[in-house]
Automatic annotation (TrEMBL):
Species this chain originates from: Streptosporangium fragile
Protein name: Malto-oligosyltrehalose synthase
SUPFAM superfamilies, per database record: (Trans)glycosidases
InterPro entries in the cross-refs: GH, GH13_cat_dom, Maltooligo_trehalose_synth_4, Trehalose_TreY
Domain spans labelled Glycosyl hydrolase family 13 catalytic: 15-378
PANTHER family per record: ALPHA-AMYLASE FAMILY MEMBER (PTHR10357), MALTOOLIGOSYL TREHALOSE SYNTHASE-RELATED (PTHR10357:SF216)
Gene3D superfamilies assigned to the protein according to its UniProt record, in alphabetical order: Glycosidases, Maltooligosyl trehalose synthase, domain 2, Maltooligosyl trehalose synthase, domain 3, Maltooligosyl trehalose synthase, domain 4
Length: 749
């Protein structure tokens, strides 16, 4: 929450940390309950569950809700959730759940969504007509349903069947159209199977939140994560209503770009942490690698150095390809020139500029939209009504203002996240949600400054179900910024043996090395998705079987002919990647905020974009490893036997559990105090209780000859390193402090 917003009293304590679970039909509430002792030992204060309301039965993610009145049966239903909450409570652990206010799914068959079926059957006369954001006027009283792709619908009694689809007869209130066309309703991004909800309507809010709020009232649920608030008509009003109704800790999945800040008037405790993830990643990237990696990227792909150009072109493409229906509806509200509106949407630099109809336009919101207007004007014919369109979306009719806000996010998401980031990737660890891949490195002073401004209640993260690649994949990729010459030589060798698509190959080599070892099926699935997202050769709507066969052959040959060399390169950089991995983990767990650990990432995890990052986690192995690591760490304080010789997995698990358990003893509001350290280290204290020290840019450190005689001065008192058991006080050599691990976590005795 911003400093200007008055905090609401919470009925439950805010989490000290969270552990994110991806629930699936084969990993439900009972499986999480079995892990309660492990989670307690790990130091977790709350589990953080993916959506729990009834979704499509086979759904692996849960964002496709079909029934808000039930806890998902495949997970164990409401009784299973109650039992889980009770078990966790016995171990001192609370429950945070992910909620999806923006949309419901349109299942196949469509009768699986009772509210939608009623609307398709009875139209505006349905008692659920106000639930959905439908363009009745633009559709001439009917809602377009994009499902057709060959063949004819067949009447069957009182339903109309089209393959597995079914619709009520007579077809008075809907129209079946080609599946490539935009629908007659607001959707999630360009996903026509997810229909927008109107939770701004109190009746819809109450109906869709009744079960969640009852679980809060009952004490089963203790905190909420809000999915995609930027899609809502009025996020501020929604969050205020949710806070008033729930009285719990709330974080919003808000993507902040660059220097953007969370709106000061949002009644929530912060974001889900993408801005933190990106700052931490950049802290471990060497800016000296920018120029050679840009040149290498351009050489292999032919793509220009200028990222902004790629973003502009990508947004223009997705507007033309996917958002015709959205632009038509927006244009009907805004009026004026359609192309000017398109260029204004393409020029918007953020996911949303928060303007509420009927209220004064915030100064920052006006600045963002007006600057976008100036950028748009450069691409429009002289005399285009840019100023008029800008004013209409800022101060015009309520529907125009709101609809513009709701359209900006999908254009950013599809144009940048799902297109530009797959086209422009000199160093792909920078290509994350909300990231800026043309900004190499982050000065330590800038990192410290951002941490000092952070709220103690905002969430921090390194990996999520939406990240393009896991934290340890990024840790490996960051090393390339320090070894551009060696990397260029390796890629040159591999490319001389195997090549396929210049727009994709260089992305393939980066991620093949960074996710190594990876089997051909997993890697093909990743590259096939990347190619469709890039849209340079194929896309989701323009398949090409010949390209697909060529891509599969590339994957098989790349792994078969270059696998040994790739494995050798990954092994060669492992000490540096391990240093980055442990360093970023320690910083995230000890900086201000509520640290979230994505399931399985307490040890190394080399996952790529979903669904790869939703694969099952081997918890029995992690439980054994935790027991072994704790036993070994107690073997002899401060000696190599205490911490040296640990595997990367064991060392990361040790850092995670010691940091999370320390957080239980640490005041969440403990001040963040930067500490003077070497250029290859970042260090800070949390109040007078804890100190964290992490190595950064480890290749450069080794080239320099190591720590040498450089020292680090601890705050007053006697300190114990929780990773090794060694005791320290005063001024100590960094070579001694970081002799066993590239990080140190110290607690004052």
């Amino acid at each position: 929450m911003s400093e200007s917003a008055s905090p609401s009293p919470l009925r439950y304590p805010a989490p000290l940390s969270t552990y994110r679970f991806q629930l699936t039909p084969d990993f439900g509430f009972d499986r999480v309950a079995e892990l309660a002792p492990y989670l307690r030992d790990l130091g977790v204060s709350h589990v953080y569950l993916s959506p729990i309301l009834q979704a499509v039965p086979e759904s692996r993610h849960g964002y496709d809700v079909v029934d808000h009145s039930r806890v998902r049966a495949e997970f164990g239903g409401i009784e299973g959730l109650r039992a889980l909450s009770a078990t966790l409570a016995e171990h001192g652990i609370g429950v945070v759940v992910d909620i999806v206010p923006n949309h419901m799914t349109i299942p196949v068959p469509e009768s699986g969504n009772a509210q939608l079926w009623s609307v398709l059957k009875d139209g505006p006369a349905s008692p659920y007509a106000r639930w959905f954001d439908i363009d009745w006027a633009g559709g001439g009283g009917k809602v377009d349903m994009p499902v057709l792709g060959g063949g004819e619908p067949v009447p069957d009694g009182d339903v109309l069947r089209y393959y597995d689809h079914e619709f009520p007869l007579p077809d008075t209130h809907y129209r079946l159209v080609d599946w490539r066309r935009g629908p007659g309703y607001r959707r999630f991004f360009d996903v026509s199977s997810l229909i927008g909800l109107r939770v701004e309507d109190p009746e819809v809010f109450d109906a869709t939140h009744a079960v969640i709020l009852s679980l809060v009232e009952e004490g089963v649920v203790h905190g909420l994560r809000v999915d995609h608030p930027d899609g809502l008509a009025e996020p501020r009003g929604y969050l205020a209503r949710l806070r008033e109704a729930s009285g719990v800790w709330i974080v919003a999945e808000k993507i902040l770009v660059g220097d953007e800040r969370l709106p000061a008037d949002w009644d929530c405790d912060g974001t889900t942490g993408y801005e933190v993830l990106n700052r931490i990643t950049r802290l471990f990237v060497d800016p000296a690698g920018e120029r050679p990696l840009l040149e290498l990227f351009a050489t292999h792909t032919g793509v220009p150095h200028d990222y902004a150009t790629v973003v502009r072109e990508s947004k223009a493409e997705v507007l033309a390809l996917f958002f015709g229906a959205e632009i038509d509806r927006l244009h009907a509200s805004v009026g004026s020139d359609r192309q000017t509106l398109v260029e204004l949407l393409a020029a918007m630099p953020v996911y949303r500029a928060y303007v509420v109809p009927g209220e004064p336009v915030p100064e920052e919101s006006a600045r963002i939209v007006e600057e976008a207007g100036r950028v748009a004007a450069e691409r429009l014919p002289e005399g285009a009504p840019v100023g008029e369109v800008v004013q209409r979306v800022l101060t015009g009719p309520a529907d125009a203002v709101t609809r513009f806000q709701q359209t900006c996010g999908p254009v950013m998401a599809k144009g940048v996240e799902d297109t530009a980031l797959y086209r422009w990737y000199p160093l792909s660890c920078l290509n994350e949600v909300g990231g800026e891949p043309d900004r190499f490195g982050l000065p330590v002073a800038e990192f410290h400054a951002s941490c000092r401004e952070m709220s103690p209640s905002t969430m921090t993260t390194l990996s999520t179900h939406d990240t393009k690649r896991s934290e340890d994949v990024r840790a490996r990729l960051a090393v390339l910024s320090e070894l551009p010459g060696e990397w260029a030589a390796a890629v040159g060798e591999w490319s001389s043996k195997v090549s396929f698509d210049p727009a994709l190959d260089y992305l393939a080599w980066q991620n093949l090395m960074a996710a190594w070892p990876i089997d051909p099926d997993r890697f093909f699935d990743y590259l096939f998705k990347a190619a469709r997202e890039a849209k340079t050769s194929i896309s989701w709507v323009t398949p090409d079987p010949a390209y697909e066969r060529g891509l599969r052959d590339f994957v098989e040959r790349a792994i078969g002919e270059c696998g040994t060399s790739i494995a050798e390169f990954a092994a060669r950089i492992e000490p540096y990647a391990r240093s980055n991995s442990l360093g970023q983990k320690l910083l995230q767990l000890m900086m201000p905020g509520v640290p979230d650990v994505y399931w399985g990432n307490e040890t190394t995890d080399f996952s790529l974009v979903d669904p790869d990052n939703r694969r099952p986690v081997d918890f029995p192995r992690r439980r054994r490893l935790l027991a072994e690591t704790e036993a070994r760490a107690g073997a002899g304080a401060g000696s190599p036997a205490a911490g040296g010789g640990l595997s990367w997995d064991a060392a990361k698990l040790l850092v995670t559990t010691r940091a999370l358990n320390l957080r239980r003893r640490l005041d969440p509001a403990a001040p963040y105090l930067p500490l003077e350290a070497d250029e290859h280290a970042v260090a800070f204290a949390r109040g007078d209780r804890a100190v964290a020290v992490a190595t950064r840019l480890p290749v450069g450190l080794q080239r320099r000859g190591g720590w040498g005689n450089r020292t680090f001065t601890l705050p007053h008192g006697r300190w114990r390193d929780l990773l090794t058991g060694a005791e320290h006080t005063g001024r100590i050599p960094l070579a001694h402090l970081l002799a066993v691990h590239p990080v140190a976590l110290l607690e004052r005795d």
